[in-house]
Amino acid sequence: MLSLIVNPSAGGGRAGRLLPDVREQLGRLGLEHRVELTKSLDHACELAFTAATAGETVVAFGGDGTIGAVAGALKHSDAVLGVLPGGRGNDFARGIGLSMNPVTACETLLHGHATAVDLGEVGSKTFLGIATSGFDSEGNRIANNAKHVPHRLVYAYGGVRALMSWKPATFTLRLDGEEHSLYGYNVAVCNSGRHGAGMILAPEASLSDGLFDVVMIAQAPKHEFLRQLPRVFKGTHVNCPFVRIARAREVEISSDRPFTTYADGDPVAVLPARFAVLPGAVQVKVPASADTTL
Length: 294
Hints:
Layout (H helix, E strand, L loop, with lengths): L1 E5 L3 H19 L4 E5 L3 H13 L3 E6 L1 H10 L6 E6 L5 H5 L6 H10 L1 E10 L2 E3 L2 E5 H11 L8 H12 L3 E7 L2 E13 L3 E2 L3 E2 L11 E7 L3 H7 L14 E6 L1 E6 L4 E4 L2 E5 L2 E14 L8
Parallel strand pairs: 1-2, 1-3, 3-4, 4-17
Antiparallel strand pairs: 5-6, 5-17, 7-9, 7-15, 8-9, 8-14, 9-12, 10-11, 12-13, 14-17, 15-16
Helix pairs in contact: 1-5, 2-3, 6-7
């Protein structure tokens, strides 16, 4: 039995609109299922825990925030998580090779295989993707509040709007106990490499290496930052002189002014904050063609 945990408002209501088609496809595939509609991320966690305790396969149908929250509810258990992309970014689904069409992605629930992936943890929250603090989190906040911007453009819109009023910040980091400082734009703690609807922020990040890739973007003139920004969609921005990357299992970040940290598209913490990797914490159903070590 599948427990289909659906965030009907994900993707501006896309998940809710496609739910009948997904259910029809699950029926064609012979996958018995029931549907639970979420009211919040905490509610999604409760539903996932209850379903896993009952021995059901949990399937998260929504955006990255819903999928990350459900994954956290299943951490360190024998439960297997299925994923159907229904949000605006769907970066975790991209990263494991799923089709961006949730109806097509249903095939993976039947023919895919389970593989262990790492989770990121900050306080009581977990995330599968990237936790970002600074310029990028400001852009994420703006994007989340944008009402009439096409989904494929909403994160670029948020970034340009954030850049208009951005002032450099000073960040203090401890990476596995070693202190670093950054004056500039942003610190991103990356469990996987993608966010922002296809941006490849950390091209060499792995979901199964037990490490974060920490991407630090230092000060540069705004015109140069904006000129280089499109390179993030190919991952070649890492060659810019104001970008540096380190790896760590534990990351502590503080800043000289308040920032809310966003992960998987949702607010998860306020700086100062401590981030930790939970290696191989959750089993995820991935396409049959996907590598067993993502």
